[in-house]
């Protein structure tokens, strides 16, 4: 036991406090002594550090884990149980007020943690039994105490191997109500929260982590937005303080990344991404990333640190842009500078590291190139591409694979812009007025009939419908139906028509390759059913896939 916890130290107390301390550690302290001690602790009237240090043995004994009530004892609270709960709460509050010596941590922690976890577990019940301090001050005080104790390496090792400590850290985070809370006490509280969640050695599932917040993913998303707002709307122009806000934002990002990737070993939770997106997180994320890129070019000494934060921002872009509304979310990212962030890294070695380059490559290949088939995204892509293209011409990409991916994106964008111009010139675009048969592709002003199977493609005649059915639609019809159902909220008639227009023109460009593959397929498998053709219009260059036609689909549905 550390010397500061020895009982002899209470002899250093003033006579009145010595009498109170002696009574408190006795088997049966009077209600008056309990009330007096509670008042001294909660009103922070221990105004002398020497007095507090002398009271440390009292706090230590009042927090004996053996005094924690068993669950069944809470059903009918006795006088002794209620007294132990009240004294332990006051002792904790005294420790939160007084920063105990870090070297006491290895002895104090086994007494502090069980009681803190007890109050967390039965917080709602205890709030109606005793006069608890407000949650925000209780948990922030606990985190400040932890921030002092971790200064001792042995204490830190004990604390970071404690089960469920990350859950308590999240609970402390949920007490934040405004952006300034993230930087309170010089940011020590938030850094402690981040360290417990990010560096804890205890096994933690996402469900366990959600125990720390009653609001689930929406609550967690709200907390991340507080860190964003702290950076976007600083209360001071002090550059040094602004950089601390950058660090707070980075901690919040790492908490989200850690929850979803490092611990769970699966893609980010779609529920968390949806909650973040609904609060405008994508816009804030891209604006912050773009501003940090500008800071990095102006502050060379901070380039590496800021590059890591930008990398964390980019890590979240792809998962945030998944799902039915992904293209709409991506449009927001493009409008606020996603392409500018990508290009800014062309001459930024600290930013284009191996893992970051892979993330950027995935964004270009899996998000930007596929989204060029969406009619409503082309204006935003064209505008952003023109803004950054001059810079691209003046620099040399520090990564050849990224340079190649960017080149493919530029080619795909120009090709789809050309299709858009032709689409506008040859059709009145009153709907999906484009024959789905790639042998025809008519857009003339005539009546079109819809496939009654999927209601997703239209034809100018039954002859075209029959040809298209044999060529590819037989295997595609059910998938087209599901695609249409899942994308109804985001695709208009004009956009559906544009997708079919791209398929028609890409089909003509690839006609020779399609026939070549069909001949080779038939030569190698003469006894199989006719092979169908699928043009993947989300790839660039366009790819062709051959697959067997299901035998059960012998006849085409009618058109109506």
Automatic annotation (TrEMBL):
The keyword Disulfide bond does not apply. Transmembrane segments: none annotated. It holds the Pfam family zf-MYND. Residues 437-477 form the MYND-type domain. Gene3D superfamilies: 6.10.140.2220. PROSITE patterns: ZF_MYND_2 (PS50865). It comes from Favolaschia claudopus. This is MYND-type domain-containing protein.
């Amino acid at each position: 036991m550390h010397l500061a916890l020895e009982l002899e130290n209470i002899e250093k107390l003033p006579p009145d406090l010595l009498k109170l301390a002696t009574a408190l550690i006795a088997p049966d302290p009077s209600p008056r002594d309990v009330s007096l001690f509670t008042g001294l602790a909660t009103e922070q009237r221990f105004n002398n550090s020497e007095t507090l240090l002398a009271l440390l043995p009292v706090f230590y004994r009042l927090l004996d884990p053996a005094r924690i009530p068993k669950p069944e004892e809470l059903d009918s609270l006795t006088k002794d149980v209620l007294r132990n709960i009240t004294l332990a709460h006051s002792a904790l509050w005294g420790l939160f007020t007084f920063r105990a010596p870090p070297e006491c941590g290895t002895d104090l922690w086994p007494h502090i943690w069980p009681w803190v976890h007890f109050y967390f577990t039965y917080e709602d019940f205890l709030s109606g039994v005793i006069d608890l301090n407000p949650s925000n001050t209780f948990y922030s005080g606990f985190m400040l105490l932890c921030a002092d104790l971790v200064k001792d390496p042995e204490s830190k090792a004990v604390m970071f191997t404690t089960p469920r400590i990350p859950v308590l850290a999240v609970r402390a985070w949920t007490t934040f109500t405004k952006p300034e809370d993230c930087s309170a006490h010089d940011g020590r509280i938030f850094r402690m929260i981040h360290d417990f969640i990010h560096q804890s050695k205890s096994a933690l599932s996402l469900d366990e982590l959600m125990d720390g917040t009653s609001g689930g993913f929406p609550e967690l998303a709200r907390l991340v937005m507080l860190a964003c707002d702290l950076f976007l709307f600083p209360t001071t122009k002090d550059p040094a303080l602004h950089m601390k806000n950058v660090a707070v934002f980075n901690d919040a990002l790492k908490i989200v990344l850690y929850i979803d990737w490092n611990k769970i070993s699966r893609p980010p939770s779609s529920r968390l991404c949806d909650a973040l997106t609904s609060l405008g997180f994508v816009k804030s994320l891209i604006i912050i990333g773009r501003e940090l890129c500008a800071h990095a070019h102006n502050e060379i000494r901070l380039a590496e640190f800021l590059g890591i934060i930008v990398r964390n921002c980019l890590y979240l872009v792809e998962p945030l842009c998944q799902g039915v509304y992904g293209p709409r979310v991506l449009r927001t990212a493009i409008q606020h500078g996603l392409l500018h962030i990508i290009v800014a890294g062309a001459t930024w070695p600290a930013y284009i590291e191996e893992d970051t380059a892979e993330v950027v490559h995935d964004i270009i290949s899996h998000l930007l190139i596929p989204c060029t088939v969406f009619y409503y995204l082309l204006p935003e892509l064209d505008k952003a591409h023109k803004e950054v293209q001059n810079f691209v011409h003046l620099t040399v990409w520090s990564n050849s694979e990224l340079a190649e991916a960017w080149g493919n994106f530029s080619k795909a964008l120009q090709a789809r812009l050309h299709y858009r111009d032709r689409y506008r010139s040859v059709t009145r675009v009153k709907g999906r007025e484009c024959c789905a048969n790639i042998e025809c592709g008519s857009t003339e002003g005539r009546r079109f009939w819809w496939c009654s199977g999927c209601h997703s493609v239209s034809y100018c005649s039954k002859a075209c419908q029959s040809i298209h059915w044999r060529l590819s639609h037989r295997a595609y019809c059910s998938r087209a139906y599901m695609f249409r159902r899942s994308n109804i909220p985001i695709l208009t008639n004009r956009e559906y028509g544009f997708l079919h227009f791209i398929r028609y023109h890409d089909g003509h460009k690839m006609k020779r390759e399609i026939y070549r593959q069909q001949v080779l397929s038939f030569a190698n498998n003469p006894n199989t059913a006719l092979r169908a053709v699928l043009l993947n219009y989300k790839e660039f260059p366009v790819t062709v896939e051959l697959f067997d036609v299901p035998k059960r689909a012998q006849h085409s549905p009618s058109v109506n």
